[in-house]
Each structure stands twice: as C-alpha cells, then as structure tokens.
Amino acid sequence: MSGKLSNDYVHRDEYYQIKELSKQEFRRVVRLPEDVDVTTEPHVSLDDGILLVDFALKVVDEPKAKTRKLEIS
Question: 68: part of which helix (H) or strand (E)?
C-alpha cells in the first residue's frame, strides 16, 4: 500500500507573500507468514476505516510417522 500527500499554503499581505509547498510519500509493507497462500486472491473489506485483508492458508500435508524395524533378541 502506498500513497502521496500534497499540501499548498499561500498567504498574501500588502508587503509580502508566503507560499509553502509540502509533499509526502508513504508506503506500508507487511510481511506475511510462510503458511499464507499468495497464489489466491485475498478477501479485502473496509469497515469503519479499518482495512481487513484475509488470506487463505496453504494446505500442508501432515508428515507420516516414520517407522523403524527393530530386532528383538
């Protein structure tokens, strides 16, 4: 997410003039956890000025238990 802000202020008087220009740029970067599926589109909504972004999680296969063969003597 990024954006730019620009403000101009001008004040004129009989003997002088003041002019102020202000420009700002901002960027927000959020790191996502590794289990987030970035290949699907997130669900995005705005509620009372709060941006909500819901991502799907990757489907992870649970590792099968490793078996070992033990000799009994």
Answer: none
DSSP 62: P
* Cα–Cα distance, 23 to 11 (Å, whole number): 18
Task: Give CA–CA dist 24/2, Å, rounded.
Answer: 11
Contact between 44 and 60 under an 8 Å Cβ cutoff? The reply is no
pLDDT tens digits along 6-47? 889 999 988 999 999 999 998 988 888 888 888 899 999 999
Average pLDDT over residues 52-57: 91
- Residues near 60 by beta carbon (within 8 Å), at least 6 away in sequence: 35
